[in-house]
């Protein structure tokens, strides 16, 4: 297989790590990768990306092959900082936990565009919101498990590096304490919940919440790492920024608007606000969208449709709450729009 590399998609480092992970479980993975048309020779091409469709197929087949319901937790905790390439290098050069999380939030799109990280600070605590934008209900919980576990493992790895740099006695990983206080998941408690407690020892876990988010101790986040290196950080971040710029330059206006809308699903900006964000006039933006045979309203409706289906299929939120989240003034307006989008009522999408 010598397919040309797509200009956007998911970094090859993740299917490469997944390949080794499945092999360590004793699974026959070569045929699996052939079935989804991923050539293992690509693992030696760090700039290579796979399509989102390939990722979806690979993940579904991996879940089916392994028969492990907690595969997402297992895979996420197996990922090293090096799995994230230059982003991982930037994290390993950060000056404290807060800077590491801000870097991850800013540049996650160059590694995994279907995940959105939003970092918010309060007076005493900080919150890292983890959003799955893939809109694949069969993989929704899995994706969130992978990335929450990756975040947890990353915080442990950075703390371990700090202890080694200080020449402290090398601790057991189970004795390390992170800034993470609580993890909230937006889906109901699974029947394999013990795997969660095993994966996140000593951390409060809650399920069936409005969002998936990681609650962190702000004071601990600001504690300086002994390995912080401003020069290395700048080199790594410059590379991340270049990748992000290249990714953005290859995107259509439609894709850029999708990304903006998904970056904060708690509000939906107006056309004028989107145009300002893209450094264009509203009239110029409308012309560009016309050239791509769409409108801002059509893009907004598509995003609302995807989010509504995700909420209906993966959460226990009632219709009124979903309508509120999607900025509908009344639940009946949402129901009417949903029927227009799908030819079905919202209740038809409940599992």
SSE topology:
Layout: E1 10-11, H1 13-24, H2 30-35, E2 49-50, H3 52-66, H4 71-78, H5 86-91, H6 97-107, E3 115-121, E4 125-132, H7 137-165, E5 180-184, H8 194-199, E6 204-206, E7 213-217, H9 218-221, H10 230-249, H11 253-263, H12 271-277, H13 282-291, H14 296-314, H15 319-325, H16 331-342
Parallel strand pairs: 5-6
Antiparallel strand pairs: 1-2, 3-4, 4-7, 5-7
Into how many domains do the coordinates divide? 3
Which residues form runs of ≥5 with pLDDT under 50?
Answer: none
Largest β sheet strand count, sense and barrel closure = 5 strands, mixed
Number of DSSP helices?
A: 16
Give the DSSP E fraction (strand runs of 2 or more residues).
5-15%
How would you describe the overall organization of this protein?
There is one protein chain. The chain is of the alpha+beta class and 351 residues long. The chain folds into 3 domains: 1-67, 434 Repressor (Amino-terminal Domain) (Orthogonal Bundle), CATH 1.10.260; 69-250, no CATH class; 251-349, Homeodomain-like (Arc Repressor Mutant, subunit A, Orthogonal Bundle), CATH 1.10.10.60. 52% of the residues lie in helices and 9% in strands. It is built from 16 helices and 7 strands. The strands form 2 sheets. The protein has a 5-stranded mixed beta sheet with strand order 3-4-7-5-6. The chain has a two-stranded antiparallel sheet with strand order 1-2. Helix 4 (71-78) runs parallel beside helix 7, helix 11 crosses helix 14 (296-314) and helix 15 packs across helix 16 (331-342).
């Amino acid at each position: 297989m010598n397919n040309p590399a797509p200009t956007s998609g998911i970094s090859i480092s993740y299917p490469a790590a997944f390949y080794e992970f499945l092999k360590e479980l004793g699974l026959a993975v070569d045929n699996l990768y052939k079935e989804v048309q991923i050539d293992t020779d690509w693992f030696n091409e760090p700039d290579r990306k796979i399509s989102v469709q390939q990722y979806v197929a690979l993940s579904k087949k991996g879940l089916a092959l392994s028969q492990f319901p907690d595969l997402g937790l297992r895979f996420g905790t197996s990922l090293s900082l090096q799995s994230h390439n230059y982003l991982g290098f930037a994290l390993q050069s950060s000056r404290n936990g807060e800077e590491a999380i801000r870097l991850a939030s800013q540049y996650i799109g160059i590694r995994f565009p279907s995940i959105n990280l939003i970092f918010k600070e309060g007076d005493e605590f900080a919150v890292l919101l983890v959003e799955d934008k893939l809109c694949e209900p069969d993989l929704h919980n899995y994706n969130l498990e992978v990335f929450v576990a990756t975040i947890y493992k990353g915080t442990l790895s950075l703390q371990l590096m700090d202890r080694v740099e200080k020449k402290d006695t090398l601790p057991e990983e189970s004795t390390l304490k992170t800034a993470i206080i609580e993890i909230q998941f937006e889906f109901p408690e699974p029947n394999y919940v013990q795997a969660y407690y095993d994966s996140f020892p000593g951390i409060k876990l809650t399920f069936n919440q409005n969002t998936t988010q990681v609650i962190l101790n702000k004071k601990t986040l600001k504690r300086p790492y002994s390995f912080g290196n401003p020069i290395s950080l700048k080199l790594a971040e410059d590379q991340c920024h270049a990748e992000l710029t290249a990714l953005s330059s290859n995107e259509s206006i439609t894709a850029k608007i999708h990304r903006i809308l998904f970056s904060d699903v708690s509000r939906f900006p107006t056309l004028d606000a989107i145009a300002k964000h893209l450094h264009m006039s509203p009239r110029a933006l409308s012309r560009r969208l016309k050239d791509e045979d769409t409108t801002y309203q059509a893009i907004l409706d598509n995003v609302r449709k995807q989010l509504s289906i995700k909420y209906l299929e993966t959460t226990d939120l009632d219709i009124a709450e979903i309508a509120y989240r999607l900025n509908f003034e009344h639940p009946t307006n949402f129901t009417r729009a949903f029927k227009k989008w799908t030819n079905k009522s919202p209740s038809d999408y409940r599992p």
